[in-house]
Amino acid sequence: MKTYNNTTYAILGILTTDCTSGYSIKQFMDQSLNHFWKISYGQIYPTLKLLVEDGLAEMKSTSSSGRADKNEYSLTEQGLMTLKKWIEQPIAQVPAERNEVLLKLFFGSHQSRDHNVSLLEDYRKILESRYATYEAIEQGIRHNHNEQQDAMYWLFTLDYGKRVTQAAIEWCEYTLKNIR
Amino acid sequence: MKTYNNTTYAILGILTTDCTSGYSIKQFMDQSLNHFWKISYGQIYPTLKLLVEDGLAEMKSTSSSGRADKNEYSLTEQGLMTLKKWIEQPIAQVPAERNEVLLKLFFGSHQSRDHNVSLLEDYRKILESRYATYEAIEQGIRHNHNEQQDAMYWLFTLDYGKRVTQAAIEWCEYTLKNIR
DNA sequence: GCCGTCATGTAAATAGTTACATGATTAA
DNA sequence: TTAATCATGTAACTATTTACATGACGGC
Fold first, then answer.
1. CA–CA distance, B48 with B141 (Å, rounded to integer)
2. Is A69 or A169 the better-scoring residue by pLDDT?
3. Nearest protein residue to C18's C1' (by CA)?
4. Which long-range CB contacts under 8 A does B131-137 form with residues at least 24 apart?
5. What is the DSSP secondary-structure string of A93-134?
6. How many CB pairs under 8 A join A and B?
7. Which of strand D's nucleotides are less than 7 A from any protein C-beta?
8. What gap in Å lies between CA B163 and CA B147, rounded to an integer?
9. How far apart are CA B33 and CA B22, in angstroms?
10. Nearest beta carbon to residue A168 from set B119, B153, B164
């Protein structure tokens, strides 16, 4: 049984929603699961092609009058099965995030206190705006997709983002106090 | 002014400690900053070579009697300057982590409740052992490096890991309650 | 004699981003 | 008429991991 990378499964998963084109997959990603998975067109289009080649999805080109060609993809039986099997698999790896801020702070003894302070202040600002973004996405899901059964799971992942971000903000504040 | 990727700066930074060989850099990474930056030999050795080529480090081969050759690297003046300049730069990007667990949970409506529950339980276990690892590293730093001025910064980054991991554990528990 | 650790390194494969190319529609 | 959005795709580059190759030393 052939295996794919997680990015491929992510695309497979999105094809179960009403996002059916490369373009709308990208949009959905940016709006809904951007906080734990992001992807570029350079991966989406070749992956869609691969899914069709492997019989996990089907494509039909719709040339609606005027509009440029739109390629609509839909999962096959086999595609849905492949997705389900992947979800069932136990977690392979939980990679640690790569954090440039922590990397810089780790070597903070080579810098002035002021520099370290502004590094942390900048980071706190980024985290705060990220938290606000999560809240906005959350509202969007509650309003636009509340009827869908997926919505509950989507909100769980957002809750994760909010909690972890909040913890990071608190760390910034605590560390700023102790570094001065 | 040539720029490098963060992995190169990480190696540059480690060369300010008493880790001077490719092998010991890897060890230091695995023990101390593994939670926010990891790296393989396939990157370390070529990067060290590059640093020497660019005049940021110097290498001398020490053939201590018997033992295999050991290549010891030390930063040049220019190398230290390059490191300091990088730390000063404002944060370029704060990439969101890629989280396989959240990705699977996001598509959880295609799975049975039991599967989602065990996904979360597995994740919680992983997070708990990760938390324990952080505490062990913390103790290691307090005992072995407490005199070093770097130690304070190292402990800050560990505190981050602990706080964020703790928040994730709490999310697991909360989500498990709500998913059942 | 074998296993674990010390030690260095390369080649190939995989993953992923960025920049580029193209062109239609729509709203200001 | 011009900018934003819709829409698809490729090529080149960068980053990173994995697997392989090699070999010495020390302890059991």
1. 26
2. A169
3. A42
4. B131/B162, B131/B165, B131/B166, B131/B169, B134/B35, B134/B158, B134/B161, B134/B162, B134/B165, B135/B162, B137/B31, B137/B32, B137/B35
5. --PPPP-HHHHHHHTGGGS-HHHHHHHHHHHHHHHHHHHHHH
6. 202
7. 6-12, 14-20, 23-26
8. 25
9. 16
10. B164
**Interface contact B175, partner A, CB < 8 A:** yes
pLDDT in tens, A100-139: 999 999 999 999 999 999 999 999 999 999 999 999 989 8
Query: How many Cβ atoms sit within 10 Å of the Cβ of residue A78?
Result: 12
Separation between Cα atoms, residue B129 and residue A5, nearest integer Å: 26
Two tokens, residue B161: 């890991």
Chain C, protein-covered positions (CB within 7 A): 6-12, 14-20, 23-26
- The model's pLDDT over A4-50, given as tens digits with 9 standing for 90+, comes to 999 999 999 999 999 999 999 999 999 999 899 999 999 999 999 99
Instruction: Over range B33-62, report the average pLDDT.
Output: 94
Q: B134-174: per-residue pLDDT in tens?
A: 999 898 888 877 677 899 999 999 999 999 999 999 999 99
Q: Which residue has the higher pLDDT, A24 or A66?
A: A24
Residue B128: pLDDT band (50, 70, 90) is very high
Distance of CA A105 to the CA centre of its chain: 26
What is the C-alpha separation between B20 and B70, in angstroms, rounded? 9
* Residues above pLDDT 90, as percent of chain B: 78
Q: How far is the CA of A41 from the C1' of C21 (A)?
A: 14
For D20, nearest residue by CA–C1' is: B42
If you average pLDDT over every residue of chain A, what do you get?
Answer: 92
Q: Which nucleotide is nearest to B37 (CA to C1')?
A: D16
Helix, strand, coil percentages, rounded to 5, for chain A? 65, 5, 30
